[in-house]
Amino acid sequence: MFRLLVILGWLPFVGSAADAAQVDRSVAMMGTTVEVSVVASHRAEALTASEHVLRALESAERRLSTWQTDSELSRLNAATSTWVPVTNATWEDLEAAERCRQLTLGGFDHGIGELIEFWGQAETWPTPDEVSRRLPTPTGPRVTADSQGRGRRSLPTVRLAEGAFGKGAAARRALAAVAGTSGVASIRIDLGGQVTHQPLIPGTKEQLADPRDRSRAVVAVELPEAAMATSANTVRSRAVDGHRVGHLLDARTGRPATDFGSMTVWSADPLLADCLSTGLFALGIEEGLRQAEALESVEALALVVSESGLLAYHTTGLAGRLTPLTAELVLQPALPHASARTTSTTRTIDTKSDEPSPGRTTAHRFPNPRPTVR
Q: Which of 174, 248, 150, 160 has the alpha carbon at shortest distance from 25?
């Protein structure tokens, strides 16, 4: 999943500016370069907080990475019929991912690891049977628990994949790890472009990339929520039978999602932003934005490559927060506001108690994106 974000104007402080200390750290982790910035009253406090963040991220990677054969997800994938010990932290992450699967109407699915691998290796266009036999049934949880809290995949076709929720889950844990740390004014965690702030500094702006060229910024956004993730096929795509196919799959069909450009999601919960960006991309421009519009404290922006240029469609909460950086980008009206939004019950980490807690439609015209797959 490609994510690009540039932060502008992020410079909080505690006390006087002369007393504040900022510590910036960059570490290779989770298949990317992780950047952590901490502002605190004193350098020692900033260093301590940054260390807590990195340790929490490392712990999450050990639990969730399917690239590590001894992680909890890898052990669940390797077991066929036996029960596997699962920590409370991983259960909470899997429950949040399951809830996100429901919120995206099945567009996101953390159980389609076999399909992801299949499309990553396909040389010819697959038959419907080749896809369907690797596609988990749409109902039921992907992992079930026994009375001892152990886990087991619910179906042989389920193979867990952390790619669309693991970084968000890690960011959640990192924020919980530094909650209440003495002297800390603010923290920024960048997991290869998925960025989370604590707290959200009013007026912070970000620049989003052109979905066709990640080095080119096309719009500046004033942050509506603390966490953000973008999904696009800019980097990870390949040719299958002469057709360019992106790595983002529509978990409802088991086939590559229609590539319209990019989908960016903001949420107070980094895990929710992570998986929603993938799931709403899979749903498509209209259905994805309408689903985001129906969720409390969630905003979304679709950058659409069309024959008439680059178009920006967004939820109502982003109205007045977008500034085009190129004449090519055309802002579209926000979706009509519905009477009420639905509260997301995706579980988040309460940064004070470290206990899990619970987390709009009329006609609108959308362009047909250029087809990239048959």
A: 174
Residues whose CB falls within 8 Å of the CB of residue 250, separated by 6 or more in sequence, listed in order: 107, 256, 257, 258, 282, 283
Nearest to 31 by CA among 57, 11, 70: 57
Between CA 297 and CA 317 the distance in angstroms is 9
Q: How many CB atoms lie within 10 A of CB 79?
A: 14
pTM, to two decimals: 0.84
Q: How many helices (H) and strands (E) does the chain have?
A: 8, 21
Q: 290-302: string of b/e by CB count within 10 Å (b at 16+)?
A: bbbbbbebbbbbb
CA distances from 209 to 148, 184, 189, 312 (A): 47, 31, 19, 12
Q: How far apart are the first and last CA of the chain?
A: 21
- What's the pLDDT tens digit per position in 48-78? 999 999 999 999 999 999 999 999 999 999 9
Are the CB atoms for 264 and 300 separated by under 8 Å? yes
Smallest CA-to-CA distance from 276 within 291, 261, 286 is with 291
Measure the CA–CA gap between 183 and 19, rounded to whole angstroms. Answer: 11
Question: Tokens 């108690």 map to which residue?
Answer: 353
Residue type, 297: S
